[in-house]
Amino acid sequence: MGINVLLIIAVVVMAVIVIMLVWYFISIKLEIHNIIKQLERIETVSNGSNNYYIRINNSNNDLEKLAEIFNQKMKTDLKLKLQIDRQYDQMLQMVSGLAHDFRTPITVILGYIELMEKDNMEHEDYVAAIRNRINQLNTSVNRLYDYFRIGNSKTVQNHLLDLKFFIPQILGDLYKVISGYGIDVKLDIKCTNCTIVADEEMLSRVMENLLINAAKYNAGKTIDIKICSGENNYLDLSISNYSAPFCDNDLERIFDLFYRKDTSRHDGSSGIGLSIVKMFVEKMYGKVVAEYIDKKFIITISFLQYEIPAYGSIEESSNL
Fold this sequence. Notes:
Blueprint (H helix, E strand, L loop, with lengths): L1 H40 L2 H4 L13 H58 L5 H28 L6 E5 H11 L1 H6 L3 E6 L5 E5 H17 L5 E8 L4 E9 L5 H6 L19 H11 L3 E7 L2 E9 L16
Parallel strand pairs: 2-4
Antiparallel strand pairs: 1-3, 4-5, 5-7, 6-7
Helix pairs in contact: 3-4, 4-9, 7-9
């Protein structure tokens, strides 16, 4: 009698185990079927939606891990797709900007040449106009060349630069250009140690772009340059000038390649200058921000201030 009870218990246990195994495999099969159905509906990469990630109803650890890995890959693919889409949009914008910047001067040049061919009068004014348009075209080409040449360069030739000497040197180099617009420059240095780490060529191009922009689009008669200590051991260099009002969208896009605040403006502006500024400053591990305060357009670039050791001096142009 005892043996029969044991056999019955054993059979019951075995039956329970078999039922549990069958149920386990059925639930796994149902979950796999559920995953397949979800995979068939997935459109995440194509439409950027987050509503189609795999969800697991079963508490199986392996399936949960599989879903986690798959969802992570989907997020990575989505991020990559969005990045590619942005780059594609930037490329279209660049091509459109290039076409506009090159087509306009060339059209004007051809027009003047046609007038010269038809007109028997002196051609001095036509030649001057053609020369001006060619110079604008040359400037656009040179800026674009700088953008890609230095932008694609993997090396940055960082040196110690003392802004107390560097900025006046740049102002001297650009004196004729700035004064040609009838603009005066006020330089205010509020730091004792104005030494930063930067690439001299890149920073020269940055200052050239900022100062010429500030002179060219100045609604007043002065450019204010201020050098002072900023936050978190940064040194701030700001260039400001009176300007027509900026809206928030202008300030957000001011550093975009080929973006122009006034698209109707035909003054040879390429919309490349400030994008070069942003790219060069960031390559030198600096920061740049644009603001519009009290009728003034202000560009501030910031670099980490180099702490000169108290026990000795270091040449401003020494290699790091």
